[in-house]
Specification:
The complex is a heterodimer of chains A (435) and B (81).
Chain A: H1 36-42, H2 47-53, H3 56-66, H4 78-86, E1 93-97, H5 107-114, H6 116-130, E2 134-139, H7 142-154, E3 162-166, H8 176-183, E4 207-211, H9 212-224, H10 226-230, E5 240-247, E6 253-258, H11 263-270, E7 278-281, E8 287-290, H12 301-304, E9 315-319, H13 325-339, H14 345-362, H15 368-382, H16 390-404, H17 406-413
Parallel strand pairs in A: 1-2, 1-4, 2-3, 5-9
Antiparallel strand pairs in A: 5-6, 7-8, 7-9
Helix pairs in contact in A: 3-4, 3-6, 5-6, 5-7, 6-9, 13-14, 13-16, 14-15, 14-16, 15-16
Chain B: E1 5-8, H1 18-22, E2 27-29, E3 35-37, H2 47-56, E4 62-65
Antiparallel strand pairs in B: 1-4, 2-3
The chains are: A alpha/beta (435), B alpha+beta (81).
């Protein structure tokens, strides 16, 4: 399977002061993976020593008290997920999801390449908490695969066997039910829930799917405690999170920030183009923020909610000067429509219709207001009706485009366009469906 | 007896439109002919017909159970024609 097209050959991490404590990106020089010896020296021994002393239920309780939420985009409380699977007794399955199929994201890749042992620690903690019979780790690229393979070989005593899986490359393949089907040997396509995967997941067993960044935090919570974890971030959303920032900044890359940080501080650290058009927050399912909305906004679910945005999986792109927000959004929605699994009516028919109307919105034929009305109607019809959240994500981006670029829509209605170039939003020509 | 709700598995539904014919009180159609199902509990007087509608779906995509949908849908749940 071709992953060479993935524009992430340079895994790049940007440890910065002033953004919050560096927890995941702490340690030795960032450039290559942290070795087992370095990891153990830095964090006071192997995680297995710690796990031998703590009963599983105490582990789950610690994770719940920490307030850790999933870092894959959904933001579900990690401890509640563990507890839900634990209710079925022991023998559940753990999946570390690093498939990272979002094209503008790089944080899972960076984490697995630079700090693989943090993720493997977390996988062991989750496995121990669940009395799991096995664990899977889904890697986003050959480089991440190599890094994890090396790390697994270094770890002497493991509680649980870990099977490494090369991740799917289609966009919806990263969704948890799709990942499970992929691991089972099927197509990486979502299935309808319920049953929830914590009740019936991999081969019908209770399954906990956690993003690899979530697992890394989990490992540190098991070592350092929930109070330590919650000392950073906001009360409702404690901890740090990884942000992948790209576009019109001097230093694009993966940043670790305290949740609740002002957006201007993060952008400031990256060297933003002062004439940038807009900021895409939350990736291709995300929302556009225009320049006046950015000062005062804070990087958390609660902080971005008044702006109808959410951090999602921490993907951000600063749209460079000369870009037209409508044309860029059209390209993304068109790509999302192509990437749909086409299993559900809203995905098979609704998303292509949205993409076509976005094309008219972004065109120069004075059809913008008519297209806008159709986009609103179809968005209302599509929302909440797919087996997975893919259609909802596209709807979110469409609504945000209509809300954020009113000035541009007016200009297009009169046959104009302020765009002079296309941005470098990554829209890779991956296979539509896995074989 | 507790409330019952009607659900469609969208991966099974292929848009036969029969459900909307049989139970227009709870099922509307989107612009492509796929059902938009009311998120409200099924009124007692419609329960029998809801069961019949479930059975009539050629794709076996409809289900009745006691859990409400995964989120409260917008007020537009039953679309205007």
């Amino acid at each position: 399977m071709s992953i060479a097209t993935r524009d992430l050959t340079r895994a790049f991490a940007r440890p910065r002061s002033g953004l919050g404590p560096q927890r995941l990106l702490a340690g030795p020089k960032l450039g290559s993976g942290e070795s087992w010896d370095e990891h153990c020296a830095r964090l006071d021994g192997p995680i297995s020593d710690r796990l031998r002393r703590v009963p599983p239920d105490r582990l789950i309780e610690a994770v719940r008290r920490s307030g850790l939420r999933g870092r894959g985009g959904g933001g579900f409380p990690a401890g509640d997920k563990l507890l839900a699977a634990r209710r079925h007794g022991s023998g559940a399955v753990v999946v570390g999801n690093g498939s990272e199929t979002e094209p503008a994201a790089a944080k899972d890749e960076v984490l697995l390449r630079l700090r693989p042992h943090l993720v493997l620690d977390g996988l062991e903690v989750a496995a121990r908490a669940l009395g799991a019979r096995g664990a899977f780790l889904v890697a986003p690229s050959p480089a991440a695969w190599d890094s994890v393979t090396e790390a697994l070989a270094e770890r002497a005593d493991r509680h649980v066997p870990v099977q490494l899986i090369e991740g799917p490359r289609n966009f919806v393949g990263g969704e948890e039910t799709a990942v499970i089907r992929w691991i089972e040997g099927g197509p990486a396509l979502p299935r309808f829930q319920p049953p929830r995967v914590v009740d019936r997941g991999w081969r019908g067993l209770p399954t906990v799917v956690q993003n690899v960044e979530t697992l890394a935090h989990l490992g540190l919570i098991a070592r350092l405690g929930p109070e330590w974890f919650a000392a950073v971030g906001t009360e409702a959303e404690p901890g740090t999170m990884l942000i992948t920032l790209s576009g019109a900044v001097e230093r694009p890359g993966v940043y670790e920030v305290a949740i609740g940080l002002e957006l201007t501080k993060l952008l400031g650290a990256a060297g933003p183009d002062p004439k940038a058009v807009a900021l895409l927050v939350g990736g291709y399912f995300g929302s556009w923020l225009r320049a006046p909305q950015i000062p005062g906004a804070r990087l958390s679910r609660a902080g971005l909610a008044p702006l109808a945005a959410s951090p999602g999986a921490g993907v951000m792109h600063l749209l460079p000067p000369g870009s037209c927000g409508l044309r860029e959004s059209h390209r993304v929605v068109d790509w999302l429509a192509q990437q749909g699994a086409r299993q559900c009516g809203p995905c098979a028919h609704g998303l292509p219709a949205l993409a076509e109307a976005m094309g008219r919105l972004a065109g120069h034929r004075g059809q913008a207001s008519e297209a806008g009305a159709q986009l609103r109607r179809w968005s209302d019809q599509i929302e909440g009706r797919g087996a997975c959240r893919h259609p909802d994500g596209a709807v979110n981006l469409v609504r945000s485009t209509l809300a954020a670029f009113g000035d541009e829509i007016e200009l297009h209605e009169r046959g104009g366009c302020s765009g002079t170039r296309l941005s470098n939003l990554p829209l890779p020509p991956w296979e539509l469906r896995p074989a | 007896m507790s409330e019952q709700y009607l659900h469609v598995d969208p991966t099974l539904c292929v848009g036969h439109r029969i459900c909307a014919e049989l139970l227009p009180e709870l099922i509307g159609l989107d612009d492509w002919g796929y059902p938009i199902i009311s998120p409200d509990p099924i009124p007692r007087v419609l329960r029998r017909r809801a069961r019949g509608t479930r059975t009539a779906c050629p794709a076996l995509a409809l289900a009745l159970d006691h859990s409400p949908g995964r989120k409260a849908r917008r007020d537009t749940a039953v679309a205007a024609p």
